[in-house]
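Dear support,

I submitted the protein below through the web form. The confirmation email said the job was done, but the results page showed an empty box. After a refresh the structure appeared. I'm attaching both so you can tell me whether what I see now is the final result or a partial one.
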Amino acid sequence: MKVYQTEGGNTTGRECALRHLVYSRMSMPLSGTTATARVSGTNDVPVLRRATVALMAAILLSGCGPKPKNQVNPFADTEMPRKIIWAWERPEDLRFLDPKLYGVAFLAQTITLEQDRVDVRKRRQPLEIADGTYVIAVTRIETVKEYGKQPTKTPEMADRIAELVMTTLDRRDVRGVQIDFDAVASERAFYRMIMKRLAESLIAKEKSDDAKHKEAIAAEDAKSEHPDHSYPASVRLTMTSLASWCTGDAWFNDFPVDEAVPMVFEMGADSDKIKRYLANGNDWTEPLCRASYGLSLEEGRFDGMKDGRRMYYFSNKPWKASDLEIIK
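What the results page shows now:
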């Protein structure tokens, strides 16, 4: 399991992100507490609370460095292919892709949330991929907006979504999961809850896989002169991002993700504004967005996009080998 190296020890980046997320909630003001509240007539409640939070933070964040500005996981950035093809819900034969050059992010399922229901529609269309391809399983989340039918957004609903996402790891060669959720402002706190639950599940899986791997190594050492000590790869957690999110208030800067992919196609009313913003030499204000771009085959690149970043490509039609000439 790859880790971020910090002065305090070897704590995984995802674990540190989760700890900082918990700390940020601890540090929020108590509802209804005023600066003049007293305990036993002598001590200020805010003072006591700050002292308690400071002590708990020292324990909680031990092993983690100071809270970083949101940033791309450098390990994930290095191991993931520089070009990734999005394969949506339609028959796709992508065996013409060179696994050394291309990865595939396929729509594995669509989850629809309505009231207290979590309805899932698994991929039904065939998908053919060459052996050894870096594969990402994408989960699309949609919510019913009709009044009286909006989702309840409970912790139990977030847990169920995390469970469903974890099932997408069952496909061979899947190395990462990606969440595609165009959350509106009122859904952002729930989105944060989902990502926290999902990151916790991935950490638990990695720890379980580590334990099994150590047992396998011990067994192989006992019977082989040349045991295989190769380590299982970490599962990467990524998300798509509306381009406007990457220039906004960084509301998702505490999400425990390895990268956010800004989708710079079909941007609607924001299209001209975003293109001018990038053409003027600006970069995304959210650092998590600074490792990649999400493009469409039909719209292609435009001025101001930085070189050297990973490219995710979407097409409105089934992919064919000749399309690769366009995205070279």
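Response: this is the final, complete result; the empty box was a page-load delay. Residues 1-11, 23-51, 227-231 have pLDDT under 50 and may be disordered.
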